[in-house]
Design a protein that fits this description.
Layout (H helix, E strand, L loop, with lengths): L4 E2 L6 H24 L7 H25 L2 E2 L5 E2 L1 H25 L3 H24 L1 E2 L2 E5 L1 H24 L3 H24 L1 E5 L9 E2 H8 L1 H15 L2 H5 L24 H7 L14
Helix pairs in contact: 1-2, 1-5, 1-6, 1-8, 2-3, 2-4, 2-8, 3-4, 4-5, 4-6, 5-6
């Protein structure tokens, strides 16, 4: 018996909240990725790792908030804890690989294609591994064309987002990129969910695993903590907001105002740059 699948049992609440979480993770992750290219090279791995964690946590949280509204008529849905944790790990690791490729090779050419492909595959892998963690009284089947379309959307979204992160054109630029990324990632999720068909067995045996409320609620504490940490780092690092390297500070010399432009060298430096100056004596020389 084919069960009726409903992905919007709470109306537009779960899609909108899921989209906002995807945008939040994308915005924080992209700004951290941008920041990695603006500071000392020794700090780059830390910024890229934080960006990967933010994007992975945002995508994972988006997926399972959306799954809160997913129901199948005639059977309860439970989730396997191990596979659910594994889907989060896959998202963070594969997104991290893609971000590190772009962070060290640049957001152009082969590096952008490779990084975007790996990141997109990480998002899609997280989605379908999380779906594999579902336990219900029935058989789940997928439409191959819709699955392929969801994977293509994920790779395209990841490539576009990483390209935008490499432009480093300021905070508003990254906000726009994160909105597009959130829309594409959420679209990938619902395209993948449209590919689902469930054939309910109709037996009285309860499904194994834990309910969504009992499992996913506590599990979201960790990813949300990562997003809060990334948000605090972004807020308290002005360079992340400005999106450009700081200007060199001017040397403070006696008699020179502190607000003098940094690109004008001090007076003494200009005098030294001209070389020695010949002084003529006003006293007439004796013949």
């Amino acid at each position: 018996m084919q069960g009726t699948v409903d992905g919007f049992s709470y109306g537009l609440v779960t899609p909108l909240v899921a989209y906002l979480m995807a945008c939040l993770g994308g915005a924080l992750g992209l700004r951290c990725t941008t920041r990695a290219g603006l500071g000392p090279r020794s700090w780059r791995p830390g910024w890229l790792a934080l960006g990967a964690a933010a994007i992975g946590a945002g995508v994972w949280t988006m997926h399972f908030i959306a799954m809160m509204g997913f129901t199948v008529e005639g059977t309860p849905i439970h989730y396997d804890r191990a596979l659910t944790y594994a889907s989060l790990a896959v998202a963070v690791v594969m997104v991290g690989i893609g971000i590190f490729i772009v962070g060290y090779r640049g957001a152009t050419g082969t590096a952008l294609f490779t990084g975007g492909t790996v990141t997109g595959l990480g998002m899609a892998s997280m989605h379908y591994l999380g779906m594999a963690g579902m336990s219900l009284d029935g058989r789940v089947e997928y439409n191959t064309v819709a699955v392929a379309a969801s994977v293509v959307v994920a790779m395209a979204a990841a490539s576009a987002a990483l390209w935008a992160a490499g432009q480093a054109r300021g905070f508003l630029w990254s906000v726009g990129a994160s909105l597009v990324m959130g829309l594409a990632v959420t679209g990938m999720h619902y395209i993948g969910m449209a590919a689902v068909e469930v054939h309910v067995h109709g037996t009285a045996e309860p499904a194994t695993g834990e309910s969504a409320a009992a499992l996913l609620g506590p599990m979201m504490v960790g990813p949300l903590a990562v997003l809060v940490l990334a948000g605090l780092v972004v807020i308290f690092d002005p360079l992340v907001v400005m999106g450009r390297a700081p200007a060199p500070s001017a040397e403070r010399l006696p008699g020179i105002p502190a607000h003098s432009p940094a690109h004008h060298p001090p007076v003494r430096s200009r005098l030294r740059a001209r070389g020695p100056v010949e002084h003529r004596s006003r006293t007439p020389q004796r013949r």
